[in-house]
Amino acid sequence: MIDQSVERRPAIQAAPEGRQPNKRVLIRLEGLTKVYDEGDMHHMVLDELNREFYAGEFVCLLGKSGSGKSTLLNLISGIDAPSHGHVVIYQDSEAVRLTALTEHERTLFRRRNIGIVFQFFNLIPTLTVLENVMLPLELNGEAGASRRAQQLLDRVELGNRLQTYPDKLSGGEQQRVAIARALAHDPLLILADEPTGNLDEDTGNTVLTLLLELTRDAGKTLFMATHAPEVARLADRVLHLDHGKLVIDENGH
Ligand SMILES: Nc1ncnc2c1ncn2[C@@H]1O[C@H](COP(=O)(O)OP(=O)(O)O)[C@@H](O)[C@H]1O
Ligand SMILES: [Mg+2]
Description:
It contains seven helices and eleven strands. By secondary structure, the protein is an alpha/beta fold. A hairpin with a 2-residue loop joins β10 (237-242) and β11 (245-248). α3 runs parallel beside α5, α4 packs across α5 (171-184) and α5 packs parallel to α6 (201-217). The structure holds adenosine-5'-diphosphate and magnesium ion. Adenosine-5'-diphosphate binds next to α1.
């Protein structure tokens, strides 16, 4: 795979003046492209995406299965690297160019700054509910992990299940633990990849409401890929991924 991101620009640069004074840019995609090569086939999943997302907004990403939603989230989180182009994340007054970081540096950046909610929860089965939520704090060497984790678990109404293991919980309960975990280390950005995709409708709605409430209360940016059309109505901006391009919903801004 071609990775032109190795052009050696410094990872940390001064943030440019925002073009829209009331909106602080948090994420910028610059010519972001992901191609999967299979034999002679080039599968262009993301095609030169250029877009900015703002601090505090709730972005809803729609698109058919296979349209590249997870691929885009994995590039923004630095789990994966683009074929070419860049993801830039503005942190305080600095711009962090994820593509200029090594994989290890991206992992450290993600641990500190990003919380992720997955479709299949991805809790660690050998850790209790409390330990799962404490983990991001402990990985960052933060003090007070137990207290903070307990507060968040109270907030998702699982304060009475601290010592339970994930396999004893329902899907909705596991996802509520995952939401607490995603917020534990007070990240800049929450990414959610079809967080209700594995839940029945009622449970999905409860989980969604919690996720929105918690991220809004904490003033966080939420970027959510979803199939659930009702989510789109709540979002600040709705984008569609279609044939590798990000298109703004006609009702979006
Ligand atoms: N590691 C990979 N190797 C080859 N193709 C992949 C890989 N990961 C994803 N794809 C392809 O990229 C496309 C987008 O996948 P994905 O981002 O998972 O879509 P979505 O999340 O919208 O369902 C799909 O056609 C998928 O088969
Ligand atoms: Mg997906």
